[in-house]
């Protein structure tokens, strides 16, 4: 995939992801707003219902009696008035018709009830005195009842409302409305100065919150003097409760957002990994072409020389060119073998022949061969491990040592210095291969064991190889239940330490 195409795809994915997340956030906010609106509506309806119930219950407690009128026999009583005396000083004169419509009238110290003739019990002159007395008693009872109706409004609110009754009403009504969160309530009285005062509450520590609550309802709104008390409710956990109400929807939305975001991040990583693999493939092809082209060209040249007639009788020259062909052929075989071994390791198909052998013997053989082929390098060895025998595959472990030596040679200048050491530590055998080469930066160390990775050298091809050597080393050591450590300083060199258990 070309860079431009990849950038377009990434831009479209970012745009789509941003749009989806923005839509989800908008939808969640909208759902929260709807839930909060519904909650407020339910609370206000509940408070109005509770206020009505309190007023109804108070009215039920007042006696309702029929009153009578004493008059002359045969009289007409349309819109007549019966006056029931009460103590002076109330400053109230109230008229009530059969529809019980109550209004303020004059400042006389009595109550006047206007009644229609069909509501009157008629008492004529022939009525017995005993019956009249009973009717007078009923009138007195009515006077008491009317007095009770209009004096109850002047009672202290603490006596008009029972807290246990209010608690029960609040709890029952809220449950009926589906409100299950904790609440604090209070009854607020408007003072003479206009300031609100909390006269009844179950929230002594949160009185200010109750006073400032926007959830209020008028108590006894039909009082003659008008409403003077309010029932207020405060919900300490309102926000959490509303979130809980849409919890399933909210969690589902957040999960979907997380899935979309995770998928996007994963896709971006895959695209980045594909780009990296594409770059590695390109580098591998370039390096492989370079590594194979040189021996092929050398073999081709040697073959061409051998085909000339002039060299036919020169046995020494023939042997020289035949040796060149053999060496270059071996070099090709080694390169192909490395690629094949890498493929086998990737597929976990590499079989090891484990035997207990001496690591010192293996190292001395490898160093001897390496010195012969790299006479310009100064090689020293300090094989000081008292216990050097381990269970290992000799062939692959020898390739590991050779790869480390070759790697030290590749990344060092002519006249390089390589030091090989062994020692025992923590019931393990330690093998160190150190050089004085170009070294590596810290950010490069995490990639050096990846297949096909090579230290960047620009367009230079003076460092040969496919980038498989160190990945092979790491894989073989892992198969021996060992580990590899690396120490490197740019400009000073690198040290590779292999740690192998003795094995059983």
UniProtKB/TrEMBL annotation:
Q: Which InterPro entries match?
A: HATPase_C_sf (IPR036890), HATPase_dom (IPR003594), His_kinase_dom (IPR005467), HisK_dim/P_dom (IPR003661), HisK_dim/P_sf (IPR036097), Sensor_HK_Regulatory (IPR050736), Sig_transdc_His_kin-like_C (IPR004358)
The residue stretches assigned to a coiled coil in this entry are: none
Q: Which reaction does it catalyse?
A: ATP + protein L-histidine = ADP + protein N-phospho-L-histidine
Per the UniProt record, which residue ranges are transmembrane?
Answer: 7-28, 246-266
Mind telling me which PANTHER family this protein's record contains? HISTIDINE KINASE 1, TWO-COMPONENT HISTIDINE KINASE
> Do you know which Gene3D superfamilies this protein is assigned to?
1.10.287.130, Histidine kinase-like ATPase, C-terminal domain (3.30.565.10)
Q: Which GO terms describe its molecular function?
A: phosphorelay sensor kinase activity
List, alphabetically, the SUPFAM superfamilies matched: ATPase domain of HSP90 chaperone/DNA topoisomerase II/histidine kinase, Homodimeric domain of signal transducing histidine kinase
Its EC number is: 2.7.13.3
User: Per its UniProt entry, what is the enzyme's top EC class, as one word?
Assistant: transferase
Q: Which residues form the Histidine kinase domain?
A: 287-504
The UniProt keywords, alphabetically, are: Kinase, Membrane, Phosphoprotein, Transferase, Transmembrane, Transmembrane helix, Two-component regulatory system
> Under which name does UniProt file this protein?
histidine kinase
Q: Kindly indicate whether the keyword Membrane belongs to this entry.
A: yes
* CDD domains hit by this protein: HATPase, HisKA
Q: What is the superkingdom listed in this entry's lineage?
A: Bacteria
